[in-house]
Amino acid sequence: MVFSIITTLLLLGNALAQSYTGPQDARLVDELVLDIDTNGVSTTPSGRLFMVISHVDGSTGTPSVVEFNRTTNTTTAYPDAEWNSYASGKDPATHFVSINSQRIGPDGNLYVVDTGAPGFGVPAILPGGPKLVQVNITTSTVTRVYSMDNATRSDSFLDDVRFHTATGMAYLTDAGSPGFIVLNLATGETRRVLDNDLSTRQYMPVSAEGTILQNKGKPDYIYNDQLEVSPCGKYLYFQPASGGMSVIETKYLEEAYYNSSMNSNTIMDQYVQPYAHTPSTGGTAIDAKGVVYVSDTDSQRIISIAPNGTMTTLVQDPRLLWVDAMWVDTSGKLWMPAAQLNRGTAFNNGTSYIVKPLHVFTLDIGTGPSPIDHA
User: Which among 145, 307, 286 is positioned nearest to 227, based on CA atoms?
Assistant: First the structure.
């Protein structure tokens, strides 16, 4: 019976998913035209721009994190070439093994999330691989490495990070072994919460451009992925990549951090509430008004979700192919890297169908970033 239900859901998912072939939206600005594949950009108020090189097009080598010079259209390994030079035999604790995301934090530092896994679907290297790396962008030096060894597993896929400045905590999603990691930024101590909870995993695989993604011949599941903290710091919005956004008050995550008896799914899941019926998603962002932006990987659109949970299509354009980690800059622009990840080697038996050049689009949304999200 269970197999029959799952099969029906898979077929229904394929039937409902659809790719958008409508007109282009003239409001989109083609901000960057790239011959490299990036799944995330972040900017500083002074105009510096950082990005992750995802290598989903089958390219090999380094770097993984770069600073992009918009005047010369060139990239520089960041914070330096050595951190970006990981190879078998090198210390995974002092090199980037595989970067999934990076972002400027509310303190003005760059934070780099390292999955610690040398390949997609490959076990994380323990100890030393999974980590959060803090980089001072003034000196371009690593100032702290937060090890995730005690909170991750071999099947973990450390995905992304957000901050709660009032409490000094950071939250990281684990998309491989579904759950959250709560990190005390002062002490470096970690706790897992909502481990394998219904809200952090999924029953449906991810889809894009109307097709369910395959990994090694099987439907691909990406667990706890996108997350955003409300500007007031009270709420954490989160979801698996296949959609279905939930919300929990951050105070319960922090209670579970300090009180081990609280850290039980039978206790924690009573505080999780459904928030929005979101679709398969590549990335999210949040603005100063608490509006969450969600990319729809099937219909090439960006959805805005008001603080009351109401969803509205912000923009839809056939060029918005798997928009990944979005970014709201201080001038009120929403940055949207059209990463085409579903066309990459990981989901196509080692063959890349990515069409270059790749593009990063922006759209004026008239609102700046949440003050606790980034500087």
Answer: 286
Model confidence over 228-262: pLDDT tens digits? 999 999 999 999 999 999 999 999 999 999 998 88
CA distance 329 to 369: 6
96-113 pLDDT, tens digit per residue, is 999 999 999 999 999 999
| Residue 195 CB-density burial (10 A; 0-12 exposed, 13-18 middle, 19+ buried) | buried
Residue type, 183: L
Nearest one of 175, 170, 176, 92 to 134, comparing CA atoms: 170
**What structural domains does the chain harbor?**
2-364 (2.120.10.30)
Three-state SS string over 3-47 comes to HHHHHHHHHHHHHHCCCCCCCCCCCCEEEEEECCCEEEEEECCCC
- pTM for the predicted model, two decimal places: 0.92
Using CA atoms, how far residue 293 sits from 163, 237, 266, 302, in Å, is 17, 11, 30, 7
